[in-house]
Structure formats: structure tokens, C-alpha cells
Amino acid sequence: MKEHPNELRSTRLSENLLRGRTSLAAVAIILSLSTIYLIAKAVGSSGLDFRLIWLAGVVWSEGASPYGEAYGLQYIAEWGPGPITHFWVYPPWWWPISNLSALTEFSTATLSWAITGAGISLVSCLIIVLNLGQDRHYAFLAGGTATALVCVSQPLIWGISIGQTSFLLLGGIALLIHAEVRGSTFARISGLVLLMLKPSVGVFFLLFYLMIPEGRRSVTGALAALVVMTLPSLLFLGFSDVWGMAEALQRYGAPEMIFNSFANSTGLVQLASLLGVEASGALRTGIKMVAAGAALGLGLIATRRRDPVGCLAALCCLLMILLPLHSYDAVLIVPAVMYAVFRLRPGIPFLIAALLLVRPLNIAGWTGLVNPSSKVFIDSALIFFASALLSAMFLVMLQRKWSLAERTL
């Protein structure tokens, strides 16, 4: 006896619903487990790099400048000789954050910083998914999977476990995406302020928005906020912190800083190291000038194409392959990957390149794809090549999207 057509349709609908619910449940479980993993890593944070932030707050609260020699002596007295950066290099607008962290003991402050980093990372992924995802079912499946992979990714885990500031990049860009989708000037200003806490990257986003008429007001607002954050330093210490930061930046770029060497950095300097090009400050400066030009150019394109989010994602890609960054800064490319997943629907090669950036340290160790001269960040070469491959495919897909949009007008 044949089933009635209505019964067949009902059966198929039930099966599809069951598959849909099963896949949603699976993603929910995976996302929950990855979140637990991230929080566990945050709780176990050593705070190695966070020491610098906390100690700067202690020194500032005592009325002294963290850019002076006393800072290094106090570091050694507190923890003994450790990493060779026994000096403060972040800008004076860190004054409120460092002082706030120094209100508690180091262990408590470290835990708070790590949990904050994990929380901002999770919320940032959620913000990006909510703003880019158009189909709710697909948004949960794709966004949940992508967020889970971010939670277990070595760049994020490493950054949080040592108390780094790289999660601020993810938070800042997420706010910028929200600002462009929802038209929020406040979110744009907040995003730029977060990014300028890591000015070696944030300054390029300021340049990007300088080329967008409605973005200039946000740049002004962000700079005003940074001035306000710097006021306590200026009031108590005058301009000594400003000159001190300039000297610290020179020391930070010195050849003896092995972790900043070409071999231990991502970006074009990694390629230069592999090709045997001698490390030089002129090359670093030239690369940063190219990155500045790219930021300005993308700002102009964003205005002409009316796709600021796509251009922001493209800027993330270009900065990742141009600038000399560290392994934990690879979170910078997360917004571009999510944009591609939701707006470009990439193919398998793109997804493979993205997956390489989830566990680059493991893959570099298994495959031997390392720079022989790299002694600290041995996954830098793999991160550079994976980022370059991913970025090239992203830019091609983005251009195709724009071309298709022009043809349909």
C-alpha cells in the first residue's frame, strides 16, 4: 500500500527537523566544551606578560614613572630575572587600566585579566556572528563552530595564558563591525580605543577611518578618549612618560630583543628571514608605510563600495601578512574568516588555510615547517604562509562579490 503524498512530505519534514535539531545540539555541545577549555586555560594563566601591566600600575600609584630604571629593578626584585623586557613599553593611556589592576594582589589581578580576556574573546565572536549572520540556523551552525575553534585555537590560548593583550584586537574589531552594521558611533569610538591599547596595530584602523567621512568624527572621539586616559600621567608626571615611551620603543626594537627578531615574527619580515635578508629597521619602517597606504586605500574603497565591513575584514588580512607580529596576534584574522563564512561562502581550500591557524604550533612541530632561526615563536613561519594563502583567497572572493554587486545594479 502506497503512502499518501501528504504523509511522505510530513515524514521528510520530520526527518529534516530531527537532523537540524541534532546538528544544533552537536554544535551547542562542542561550543560548550570549547568554552570550558578556554576558561580552564584562563584560570591557569601564568601572567608572564601581564606582570608588566600590573607593575606599571604599582609604579604609577607610587607617583613614579614606569618608563624609568626603577621599573626594571622593581621587576627583578619581584620576580627575579625573567624575559629580557624588564621595561614598560605601552603608551601612557594605559594609566587607568594598569592602576585598576594594581588595586589587588598580582595573583588575583592575573586571574581577573585572563578571565576578562576569555570573556571579551567569546563576546566578540558572538557580536560578529550576530551582525554578519543573516540566516539564524546557518548563523548558529557556522558561527558556533567558528567560535568553538577560536576558543581552542593556540594563538588565543597562548595570549590569554601568558596575560597578553592580543584579545583586545578581537574585541576592538568586533565593535567596529557592530558599528558599521548598526550605525553606532559610540561602538566605533569604543572599538578604536580598544585597538589603540595596542597601537602598533590600532593606528592603521585610525588611518582607515580617516578616509571615511562619517568615520572622522569617531577618530576624533577616540583620540579625545585617549587624551583623557592619559591626563593622570600628564598631571602627575608631566611629559616624562611621553619621552620615556619614545625611549622604550627604541629599546624594544633593538637587535638583542630576540622575540622581536625577523625569524620570530609573522608578516613580511618572516619571509625576509627565510630568504636570508638582513634584519634592518629600514625594512620594518618600509613595511609599516606600505601597511599605512593599504589602510588609507581601503578606507577610500570602503566609501566607494559602501562595504566598510568587507574592507575592515580585508584590512585585517593585509595587516596580518604585512606587519611584524607575534603568534598570539593571529586572532587578528578571525573577523576576516567569519566575514568570509557568512558573506562569501568560501570553498574547502580557504577553510583548510583557516584550520591551519587553529593549532599552528602543533602543525609546525608535526610537519617541521619552521624557520630554522626561530627560537621562541617557532610557528611564525606557518602562521605567515597560512595567513598569506587565506588572505589571497579572501581578497579574490571579496573582489568577486563586489563585481557581482556591480553587475546586478
TrEMBL record:
Protein name, UniProt field: DUF2029 domain-containing protein
Transmembrane stretches, start-end: 21-40, 111-131, 138-156, 191-212, 218-237, 283-302, 309-328, 348-369, 376-398
InterPro entries: GT87
Membrane topology of the entry: Multi-pass membrane protein
Assigned keywords, A-Z: Cell membrane, Membrane, Transferase, Transmembrane, Transmembrane helix
Short name of any one Pfam family annotated for the protein: GT87
GO MF assignments: hexosyltransferase activity
Principal subcellular localization: membrane
Sequence similarity: Belongs to the glycosyltransferase 87 family.
Compartment annotation: Cell membrane
Domain of life the protein comes from: Bacteria
Gene Ontology cellular-component annotations: plasma membrane
Organism lineage: Bacteria, Pseudomonadati, Pseudomonadota, Alphaproteobacteria, Rhodobacterales
